[in-house]
Please model this.
Amino acid sequence: MAMSNFLSISLFVAFLFLNHGIEASHVIYPEFQSLAATTVQQTHRTGFHFQPPKHWINDPNGPMYYNGIYHLFYQYNPKGAVWGNIVWAHSVSKDMVNWQALEPAIYPSKPFDIKGCWSGSATILPGNMPVILYTGIDSEERQLQNYAIPKNLSDPYLREWIKPDNNPLVFPNGVNATSFRDPTTAWWANDGYWRILIGSRRKHRGIAYLYKSRDFLKWTKAKHPIHSKGKTGNWECPDFFPVSLSGANGLDTSYDGPDKKYVLKVSLDVTRYDYYTIGSYLKNKDIYVPDSTSVDGWGGLRYDYGNFYASKTFFDAGKGRRILWGWANESDSAEDDIAKGWAGIQTIPRSLWLDPSGKQLLQWPIREIETLRGKNTQMSNKVLKTGETVEVQGITAAQADVEVTFSFPNLDKAETFDPSWVDAQKLCGQKGSTVKGGVGPFGLLTLASEKLEEYTPVFFRVFKAPDKHVVLMCSDATSSSLKTKGLYKPSFAGFVDVNLADNKLSLRSLIDHSVVESFGAGGKTCITSRVYPTLAVSNNAHLFAFNNGTETVTIDKLTAWSMNKPQMNEGLK
Ligand code: DQQ
Model:
């Protein structure tokens, strides 16, 4: 269980009482709703992550690859830097690195979405026809499922979208009308029916309702949800897709061949993290059953153990891979966001596939991001004794991509693991980067000031359990900023299920001014931290590697690149 029972229950109670009727999980600041940004503070803006020039963004919506173009829609407040006035902003790209902003594609205009156009997904129908399903909020605050289609299919960018008059497609009949949202990409089965999932809850039970349709217009609720789980609260932004049992190639959402497992991801409103299980989809019964090795609920696996929520995947038919987008919210205050004039980024798109063990997914930044790599510096066979720190010089440490492999002679000095340490984040809070260990802590000090008044360490610590080793990976914001007011500085952490037979651990970190996105052991465990240094900014940011374990650690190989800036949505007013 990722959280103590007490904390989870308190959070749950707070959630139930703090959501005044309108069950969006976002905090609403009525006083800030029309405060359009006049200036935009640059200090913590990212260099190569997806963000618009200003204002608030949240969930990625309807990502798709269509006729050679990648589309990303996202929840956007055109009027300010807090959540509100939500429309579907729209950007297009040929490589998911350089983006061009277009006018919003979907915005409140009809009775079926007059109070909001919330999250949803895209499906490409036979005949190469894209269709978007999204949640509209009507004047009674009910959550309805609508569709939108491109106005002009010959426009390569699909700039304009229309919402036909036969909307809504799905009314919240027999369900909780204020917790009924975020339709998935549809999949087609050879019984002639399209299927979608819609996130919901009944009391405290999180639910993914299944709806079926022959013609994509008339949808009927299946007899039972595809899956549900008690005491998990509202399920937002469900995602359901097949993954291949052989290799890193992605599968179309409607793939119905052999050698596949299924992934069900839900965004738990109560904890604000994205959890997934791997399992089987029993087609004839229309139910999903997680494998016995996959823990269901908030004790289970997460795409990312940091600031990452409301994610969505899509099948990239151009390159035959499945791509994951996630929203990394700010960790500063609403007042800070108003002052900055912006809030929220999307994480770097990641390829995602099944680990050969079949027990978890692997994720890796799309290879196109490497086109931004500029000047680089390398280190090899560099020994780090206890307490040693070495600077990685010669790159722009505030905007960088770092890949490193560490090795250690053996695991004899690993600290003993206490089986009661089930909460990785709590453990990382106790055993931070400066707390001496045996094998580790070792790793990187990112976004560090010269004299280490500020730094965000990303590191490993290896423990010895009776019949195995336990690897903890941390991305710890505790010392990330000298600023004390209004910042959330968690010691984000996850365990890494990795075989240490070769006595090696690898790490990749994408460092971008106010975000550190890290991939442990080839993408087994991923952690995104949002941080706001005051000294370690721009050219004053440094990068170090360190070892605070009693066992010597060697940097087998480290390569760090300065990252160039792509074209990022310039032109959006
Ligand atoms: N954000 C959207 C909802 C979704 C939530 C509203 C998740 O559709 O459930 O902006 O962050």
About this structure: The domain at 368-563 is CATH 2.60.120.560 (Jelly Rolls).
